[in-house]
């Protein structure tokens, strides 16, 4: 949990406050008692170390979800930049990057160790923005669509709620990601084009125009929307099944460590499914952002249908499985840190309504 403790200093201050005792001191310093002696009310959200202090589905809840999404997505994508580099080059130049092992060898020989992290800045910025939109808007749309459906239909068709909520969130998230993804692919697959974001971004705009940054948006939607729908719906389903069939203790009675372990395991399995459904579109995105003026037809003709589905797939399964597991672990770890419940699982049963008072009790009252 050390990573969450260090991240605490980066969290927007409106998400939490200091301990209750310190909060009281600060309130007394900031606002003197009223003339009639009544106590002044605090508008500060209590500290994240005290559970359940952020109201569910409040603006602070969605802000925390967005912050946790950015925190979990940007750094994890940056950490697997070497795998992403080899994968992208295998997709663009299979004659040179014939396999995973030889791909790493070619990259090391030509670019050195530093070459393994080429494009890490646009990766970090792009996927941090995407993760913030993806997780924050997913929580919003999941609640929004559940309210539209009503309690009965929301429970009955919960998988459809997950699919609709994640798809809606990803449409927005990809608009935030697309410019950085375009620059990242060009930097990673064209040695000598640019050192990174600072010189790569203006070169890309000069070459392709500002609208060129969004040339790959439709293929990106084609890759990311199915990916995210699978990521969230399968994760929610897998986690629910684990709590229902594999863990004898109800979720709300499990330790936080166990709950985070379930999130990590569910995330890895979900990541494998994500890689399978989104891989053809991933090949398209890499091809279009690498070749100036290229079209989807050019990509299909060059890669072939079989290559579209299989080129770079084993490496992407390993990369996306690990990536998705780490993201869910970090995201739910952050939620635990700020006092929110982990994602997914069987919700605790609603309390039974209080029995109606008897005639004698009403008479006594």
Automatic annotation (TrEMBL):
Solcar repeats: 60-144, 157-241, 258-337
Gene Ontology terms describing biological process: mitochondrial phosphate ion transmembrane transport; response to osmotic stress
Signal peptide coordinates: none
Taxonomic placement: Eukaryota, Viridiplantae, Streptophyta, Embryophyta, Tracheophyta
Name of the molecule in the record: Mitochondrial phosphate transporter
PROSITE patterns for the chain: SOLCAR (PS50920)
UniProt organism field: Vitis rotundifolia (Muscadine grape)
Protein keywords: Membrane, Mitochondrion, Mitochondrion inner membrane, Repeat, Transit peptide, Transmembrane, Transmembrane helix, Transport
Pfam families: Mito_carr
MF terms (GO), sorted A to Z: mRNA binding; phosphate transmembrane transporter activity
Family recorded in the similarity comment: Belongs to the mitochondrial carrier (TC 2.A.29) family.
Topology of this chain in the membrane: Multi-pass membrane protein
